[in-house]
Description:
By secondary structure, the chain is an alpha/beta fold. It has ten helices and eight strands. Helix 1 links the parallel strand 1 and strand 2 (about 35-40). Helix 1 (about 20-30) runs parallel beside helix 9 and helix 6 (about 175-190) packs across helix 10. Pfam families: adh_short.
Amino acid sequence: MSSATFRSLQGKHFAFFGGTAGIGFAAAQALAAEGASIALIGRSQSTGQSAVSTLKSAGAGEVAFLEGDLSTLKGGQAAAAKVQAWSPVLDGVVHSALTACNEKRMTADGLEFYYAMQYQVRITIDSLLRDNLAASGDGRIVHLAGPAPKMLTPNLNDLQYEKTSWGFYKACIGTHNLFFMFIQEARLRWQQQAISIAAVCVSSTKTKMQLDPSMPLLMRLSNYFAVTPEVSAQNIITYMRWRKIEEKDRFGIFWDYKKSQISEPQQPEQSARQLWSYTKQIAAMKGVVLDAM
């Protein structure tokens, strides 16, 4: 690709939720090297401050670590408010916060752990920051994902597993299908907003989470054939660097980490509408109003 393919990142502001390590941090380093300003949102002050130092050395324009709880709706709301205070105008948001859990757990909100962290809180943050992203004239959102088959889609009538049995692959991997549905529905509802949303699918990646004893054995074994975070981060970097995102690519999915190619989501339309409404209702039940939805 020629340099004309990419835009300058000098003076642009990006927020990385869960970007203090792994794939998100690899992407943040690449953007920092081009002079972008970066906010990292995470739990650990020590890890966050170490990451800030690395990004400053890489050449970032401005770097901040914002402590945040990304497992609850109020925590997500508070994190979004900190980002808005850091920069009212945003050029990009990246969601890469992941964690390991091989048994059913509930968050402080009473929501299933993976549903909360990998879907509900992410979408809550997107909705709260939508207007800040649109204010840049070309706001971009990335959700780190995996190429989840539709057969693993959680039951939309039992997303908290109150009636059906919990399983790691359906809860963790299948949850990615939920934000594929979100992207598909956002294509209809947010079309007039100056924003774009992409899910970036990756394969097994050498991260601390991949080797966590809480992960299933198959996931841990796959680490021996995994790629580096820098390889998995490439489509995140590309998406944020592109000078222009074509209309057909504004709401889509990078299915293959080896290709910078976006496809439209192909989720059931009724399911996508149902999930959109459910997401807004759950947020309201926890005291977070999502006017953008």
